[in-house]
Write a structure and sequence with these properties.
- This protein has 113 residues and is of the alpha+beta class.
- It has one domain.
- The protein contains 3 helices and 3 strands; from the N terminus they run ααβββα.
- It has a 3-stranded antiparallel sheet with strand order 1-2-3, with no helix packed on it.
- A hairpin with a 4-residue loop joins strand 2 and strand 3.
- Helix 1 (2-20) packs across helix 3.
- It is flat, with a radius of gyration of 20 Å.
């Protein structure tokens, strides 16, 4: 149960900020960009596939000291973000889960039926 809650919270914390604020991906650059990266930028793409619809996407691009762009890729970026958020969720939830007692036992120490 703890793992499921942590995974769900990590997924929500990983997806929502990146969807609302694509520029927040830039803070992952020290973790996902290769060594020697001079700077990292987030390229925002806005498309209008149909009237009244707007799609906004962001992509992290690492720029080397020589000016060459490198894309770390969705899986590497999303995986790093998910891992950090899941770890943060676990750290925040663990004290609450430990305080609530172990599952399958009532407060008297006997097994629940």
């Amino acid at each position: 149960m703890t793992l499921a809650v942590t995974a769900f919270m990590g997924l929500m914390f990983a997806i929502v900020p990146g969807a609302i604020f694509p520029g927040s991906l830039r803070f992952l650059s020290p973790l996902v960009c290769p060594e020697g990266t001079a700077r990292a930028v987030v390229v925002r793409t806005v498309t209008h596939p149909a009237p009244g619809e707007t799609n906004i996407s962001g992509e992290l691009i690492c720029i080397s000291a020589q000016g060459r762009p490198e894309r770390p890729g969705f899986l590497r970026t999303a995986g790093t973000l998910f891992g950090l958020c899941a770890l943060l969720s676990l750290v925040l939830c663990l004290p609450i889960l430990l305080r609530s007692g172990s599952p399958g036992r009532d407060s008297g120490g006997g097994l629940r039926r």
